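SAMPLE LOG
Freezer: B-3
Tube label: C17
Construct: single chain, 291 aa
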Amino acid sequence: MRYFTDTHTLFIRGAFRAASTGINGGISRVSTIFNHTIPSGWDHTEPGKELEKIAAGAGLAPTFFGMLTAVPVQQCCVLQYDFVTVFITAGIRREPPESAGTINIIVTSSEGMVDSALLETIMVATEAKAEALAALGLPLSGTPTDAVIAACEGEVKHRYAGRMTDVGHRVRGAILLGIPEAIQRHDSEVQEHQPSFFIFSRFKGEHWVEWTPHNCAYYPCHFKGQSCDFCYCPFYPCGDESLGQWSSGSNGNKVWNCARCTLLHEPENASYLKKFPLALPAEIKAKHKKK
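STRUCTURE (predicted):
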């Protein structure tokens, strides 16, 4: 899985088995999931055609799930909790229910799930959203136009995704943090050029960390003048043993260790990937060798 944004759209690319409650939803294999910001005064009578137009304009295959929102995608909160990554845009207007905004949630897992677990992930995400809104003192469990997409890749490892499972525990934790963070960004009209990124860390105790390149305490971690646009690599785990290696984690599981990889810290390579976000690691490696 990797994600990137353009001016109005968050794109998430991969080889997903996914379930969507959104426009033209259902359960399917998709190569792209996206969340698109619609302009003020947009004609909402044919949302399905709007999604098709966005996909065609981006040159995407017709295997996608899409969402629409009035929230700028740059106000999205991305939360990574081990193998689970959650994307949230949230706009709450303190007005009558028929115009109360939209909360869109996308959950991705790098570990596969059976279809029933994908559906259970949607349930857990919705419960956590309502719990987060209640904690904020908001008298609603959601808005009339909310949508959730749950997607997974890889070999099936999870048959269940309730809130006490490995999947559900991580989804709930990410959403409880992400909903208030996303609402705060929308309410304060935060102007950022990219989504906010949070990672669940176990360094010196379990806690969430918001990572920003301009406030990183470890910069430069590799070499002077490095690019940190991709501190958290969009190719992770690439499995390329010329860039990293599999190591034993604290729980005995194998984890991909690429601490010494500088491929995307080279400014030229980072710029290339931002210009061509669908480029593969092999393409960037080949370009790098030609220097």
